[in-house]
Design goal:
Strands 1-2 form a two-stranded antiparallel sheet. By secondary structure, it is an all-alpha fold.
């Protein structure tokens, strides 16, 4: 139970950030950065007075839905992609196992938990926006791997400490020497379409270029891979 609540909290952070992205796009009064809605999925009775709780609860409802049936025990698997980092927890969301996350699947899970956990059901705007945000190659279809990659990208680097997830480091640093080569950087993201694949190359080059006065050397350190992942998250997810 504790594990599920922790996971719900993590997913709610992600969805609240998505919700703040919608707010920034629809108002001339810009909210503050990511900290505005950081990790705020709390049941209605526990919300602080004056907080923007209806946005937070909407995200919390969908977060709870995504973790309702997470298995207590999962088998460890070889991690080859960002999607693999979250596969054991999230792959069940694709209920019919067709490799596609439909809007109906997201809405149905959210509705079920909204009733059982006393959360406000997220509205169609948040659901539709979340689905579009997960569509990384922008082909109009959100696949399971795209959603898993999005969630992994959101959590690969700690916002509090800046530390990179250990499994993520191992995935990029194939030989364990503390350096990530260009050939190892792009594949873990999967297919992100033409624009997304160009973005991966630009991000690597940008961080490499800024790494030191001696100029780019075609590889990134562990610290620099954290910077690159954060930059990718900002450009892809909007926060």
């Amino acid at each position: 139970r504790t594990r599920r609540r922790t996971s719900i909290h993590r997913m709610a952070c992600h969805l609240n950030n998505l919700r703040s992205t919608v707010a920034r796009a629809s108002t001339t009064v810009r909210p503050s950065p990511r900290a505005l809605l950081r990790c705020a999925a709390t049941p209605q009775g526990k919300q602080a007075a004056g907080s923007n709780w209806h946005h937070q609860i909407a995200a919390g409802a969908l977060a709870a839905a995504l973790f309702l049936q997470t298995p207590e025990h999962v088998q460890a698997a070889e991690i080859r992609s960002l999607a693999d980092l979250t596969r054991s927890e999230f792959s069940f969301v694709d209920q019919n196992k067709d490799g596609v996350i439909s809007l109906e699947e997201m809405a149905g899970l959210a509705r079920q938990v909204a009733q059982e956990e006393e959360f406000d059901e997220p509205g169609p705007e948040l659901l539709a926006f979340s689905q579009r945000m997960f569509d990384l190659n922008q082909d109009g279809t959100t696949t399971t791997d795209e959603m898993l990659t999005s969630l992994a990208l959101s959590n690969a680097v700690s916002e509090e400490t800046g530390e990179v997830d250990t499994d993520a480091i191992k995935m990029f640093d194939k030989d364990g020497d503390g350096l990530i080569m260009r050939r190892d950087w792009s594949p873990p993201f999967g297919d992100m379409g033409v624009s997304g694949n160009e973005l991966k190359n630009y991000t690597f080059d940008r961080v490499d270029f800024l790494s030191g006065p001696e100029g780019p050397d075609g590889k990134l350190s562990v610290q620099e891979i954290g910077q690159a992942l954060t930059l990718m998250r900002t450009q892809v997810m909007g926060y």
